[in-house]
Amino acid sequence: MRVLLVDDDEDFLAAVVPEIEKIAKATVTVAKSRDGASAAIRSAGFDLYILDLNLPTVDAGLDLAVTHGLAVFHEVRAAAPRTPIFFLTGSSADAVITDLLRHAEQIDVWGTGTASPTVQLLRKADLPEMLTELRRVGKQIADTDEVEIATQGASINLSTDQKRVLRIFTRKRGGSVCEVFPLAGGLSSARVLRIKVRDDQGASRIVAAAKLDEIASVDGEVSKFDADVIRLPPGAFPAKVDVVRAGARTFGGVFYRLLDGFDASLFSVIANEPLAAKEIVNTLKERTAPWRTGAPTARRKVSTIRRRILDDKSASAIKKRFDLSWASALESKMILTRECCVHADLHGGNVLFDTGRAPVLIDFASVGLGPASLDPITLELCSKFHPDSPLLGDAWPSEDQAKTWANRAAFAGAAPASDFVAACRDWAHEVAAGDREVYATAYAYLLRQLKYDGPNTDLALTMLTAVRDAFDQTYS
Q1: What is the DSSP letter of 398?
Q2: Residues 409-433: pLDDT tens digits?
Q3: Considering the domain 2-144 in this protein, what is its CATH number?
């Protein structure tokens, strides 16, 4: 257990720190002022914060004030939401603390099944009471950290906070081992994992898809799931079973139940059974149809479509870096587009399937309004640009083939997974308001790829030119 103890009373510190280390088996970091506490909060994560409100601004300062302790309290709440805070008091700050306690939450921080207050008041004069409470919290944390994260020798590189989220979920499900398998690498800081929770007897408790990210992003995904994902038919998505929002500083996780057998992604199908990949694409089109039902068309600038997946600042830097002087004129065009709910990150790693080839969607952080062609265009082009794609290093397409991108028969016919590519393109044209929307969406996707240094930069530039030419020809 990692504890930050904030107090300027040297005698109290000398007496209590060894006891905390002994009783709670904790590593204790001491701060003696507002600024010292702020530096510690920024530099490390803690499982418990023990705060004296009456603090000076700097070590050995004479300006003791409750306002300084309150500043530390609010900084802790921002840096580590819902992490337990103990207030030590024996001063006139009691009234302030009583007010703060009214806002304390009762939650299960460590997956024990029992809710505890996130803010507690402890009297400095009653050291045994404080040590008893520390012993309780220390045991809860120690038991949670006993959960084994098993990767079967794979290097998954999870952070301490990400592992803590998995351990809390595992303990809540009655497990002692969490087997972890990466699902989607992607290019963001979030992690998408397939996990299997096992108990002490080795029995499986649950198989789940886990999305680990900052708590604010997790809450955003949960909101999108509840508002839009549940509009899809049963079987198109896994059931949401839990959300972890405490115990790992600013990190949290949302967990979706998977049935046994959903242990491979669409990328695996593209690599091993490209003919089956076409049928999965067609099933995805059918399963996402409710998002498009009754979707209106509207006139939007191409820049609005691009902005759905790439912000203005990044787009401007890319255009300047690669001398895409023509891009601004293209983006100023007003075109007809069909706006509907889209997944907006529909790459092969976010589509899982079972042995019956029934696909389910995962990772809903980007769900929201967008052009109807965005999902199929993303699915097609991820085969060449996503880091987990089995076709990433394939010789297809050559430069000459890349120049034919707008010609579906010529481009798809040369692909190793030609039926898959053709099915994605057919889907895009079927649901879009017109060809201009398809080309504008492909432009946005390819422009975003230039944000990342990768082996296919030249390919993206060549395909961008092909997309531009196809777009321009719709006006001739």
Answers
A1: P
A2: 999 999 999 999 999 999 999 999 9
A3: 3.40.50.2300
Radius of gyration of the chain (CA): 27
**How far apart are alpha carbons 131 and 452 in whole angstroms?**
51
Q: Is 15 left (phi over 0), alpha (psi -120 to 50) or beta?
A: alpha
Q: How far apart are CA 211 and CA 258, in angstroms?
A: 13
Residue 264 has a pLDDT of 82
Cβ atoms 327, 447 nearer than 8 A: yes
CA neighbor of 339 nearest in space, from 307, 375, 292? 292
Which helix (H) or strand (E) segment holds residue 123: the answer is: strand 119-123
Which residues in the chain show pLDDT less than 50? Answer: 186-187
pLDDT score recorded for residue 393: 85
Task: Return the pLDDT at 90.
Answer: 66
The answer to whether the beta carbons of residues 351 and 420 sit under 8 Å apart is: no
Neighbouring residues of 243: CB distance < 8 A, sequence distance ≥ 6: 218, 222, 252, 253, 254, 255
**Distance from C-alpha of 352 to C-alpha of 183, rounded to nearest angstrom:** 9
Residue of 95, 91, 76, 65 lying closest to 29 (CA atoms): 76
Residues 26-81: tens digit of each pLDDT: 899 999 999 999 999 999 889 999 999 889 999 999 999 989 998 999 999 999 88
Give the architecture (CATH level 2) of 148-257.
2-Layer Sandwich (3.30)
Residue 439's pLDDT is 98
Phi-psi region of 60 (alpha: psi -120 to 50; beta: other; left: phi over 0): left
Instruction: Among 3.90.1200, 2.40.50, 3.30.870, 3.40.91, name the CATH number for the domain at 264-473.
Output: 3.90.1200
User: What does the CA dihedral 5, 7, 8, 9 come to, rounded to 10 degrees?
Assistant: -100
Domain boundaries, the chain: 2-144, 148-257, 264-473
